[in-house]
Amino acid sequence: MSGETGRNDCAIRARGLTKRFGNFTAVDHVDLEVPARHVYGFLGPNGSGKSTTIRMLCGLLTPSEGEIDVLGLSVPREAEALRKRIGYMTQKFSLFDDLGVRENLQFMAAVQGVPKARTRQRIDELIEQYHFGDRQKQLAGTMSGGQKQRLALACAVIHDPELLFLDEPTSAVDPESRRDFWEKLFELTDAGTTMLVSTHLMDEAERCHRLAVLDRGVLVADGTPAELTGRLEGRTFVVASAQPRRAQQPLAQADDVLGVAQVGNELRVIVREGLADGDEALARLKQLLAERDPQARIEPVQPNLEDVFVAVTRQQHPGQERAA
């Protein structure tokens, strides 16, 4: 592939990206474009192929098929040159528990080849930016999950990477720490860093500039959160019933219903494509509930990303094993 990627506002471009382990296809002919200076989300259930894809994009895993261009470099052929320009953070945080905050940063600076003349200034910047001024000597192993997360992010950006890969980085921390973490990500994006973040959390997916949904190794949806939810307009409803479990049964068994789930005392329903419009879908739902709960109230609602996730993953072939 050509070296134009870094110059045309596309940080990552993959075509036909595939990874097989024996007879098992973990990632199946994925096409991907990640805009520069964006937070790009990889949304998918555990085992959908997110981590395998990220490892191929980083040059850590050789694809079975396909072409990868990252920051204008052909991967995996130019993976060594790429590693100097990217950061990588996993959910395990990869810190040395018996080293302090500054010591962890010093170690990572050496690993990433930060010039010695620049190291002290860079570490001081990160300690101030990530609020470790009073914890520089604290051992990483004694820190809370949110503190470890912030330190791991600081370590991942010690060398000012142009592109940062984050593989489910907030799965082990509380909601408040996740919010603080995302503020740091947007600060980095504002400064010019591109992010690729894998997650299975809907509130995180909503924060991304753009999303790809992976299921069983297949890219099943791609777009901004607004574009993805817009494709479900007229197909999502709330059913208020005095007996939601009783009302759920005929809906769950109907071919026209793609998904139904109880949320509190209500049912959230997604109908399949093919019904002419929202009015036809509404009439069909009333027909399905006529015998079990004719008094049920059915109202259209705005789709959300969880609805998108259910809709696109339910269209995949059942019974297929999930990728790592």
UniProtKB/TrEMBL annotation:
SMART domains: AAA. Signal peptide: none annotated. Keywords: ATP-binding, Nucleotide-binding. It comes from the Bacteria. GO terms for molecular function: ATP binding; ATP hydrolysis activity. The keyword Nucleotide-binding applies. Residues 12-241 form the ABC transporter domain. PANTHER family: ABC TRANSPORTER G FAMILY MEMBER 20 ISOFORM X1, ATP-BINDING CASSETTE, SUB-FAMILY H, MEMBER 1. This is ABC-2 type transport system ATP-binding protein. It comes from Dyella marensis.
